[in-house]
Amino acid sequence: MANENQFRLKTKFIATRNVKEYRETIPVLVNEDDVVLEIGCEWGTTTQILAKHCKEVIGTDISPECIERARGYSSDIRFEVLDGFDVRSALDFGKQFTKIYIDISGMSGYRSLLDVIALLMMYATILRPEAIIVKSGSLKQFAYNCVAWRIEDTQAKDKDQNKEC
Asked: How many CB atoms lie within 10 A of CB 94?
């Protein structure tokens, strides 16, 4: 059952289709005061880019092997093993994340769209970042086709049509 609190989140969701778009958001959306969590960092390539634009970044991945490799490439950046679906464990980092970047393989298909939305809502509800940037082609396509309903829009349209008569 829905309640009004779930609709009061201020987190912005930015959907990107591919790695290029995902990384293009960094200089536009991330600033020197941001504390960023990256979920699905793999070897830390995007985490390195994020680190150049923010105050602090933590790169995470479910694979211990990927985290070890990322640490080998960038010993000055914090990397941790984290299952991206274990949102409560992200609280254990003890940080107030202002931005969250999510690049989890398998999140781009339409069959996973509900999982993506559920994951975004969990992070928004629990960590309350300013923005969550996610690499998901299906979410981007879905968002592109969405229009938030507002009765005022239809009333304005009706008013304009009445003027034409």
From this structure: 5
Give the dihedral sign, CA 144/10/117/33.
Answer: positive
Could you give the CA distance from residue 79 to residue 93 in angstroms, rounded to a whole number? 11
Q: Are 43 and 70 in contact (CB under 8 A)?
A: yes
Between the CA of residue 77 and those of 43, 68, 71, 102, 153, what are the distances in Å? Answer: 12, 12, 7, 17, 48
Q: What is the pLDDT of residues 21-38, one digit of tens each?
A: 999 999 999 999 999 999
Local structure of 16: helix, strand or coil: strand
- Distance, CA of 35 to CA of 95 (rounded, Å): 8
- Which residues, at least 6 apart from 22, have a Cβ–Cβ distance to it below 8 Å? 16, 46, 101, 103, 133, 135
Q: For residue 13, list its beta bridge partners.
A: 132
- The 10s digit of each residue's pLDDT in 92-151 is 999 999 999 999 866 666 678 888 899 999 999 999 999 999 999 889 999 999 998 888
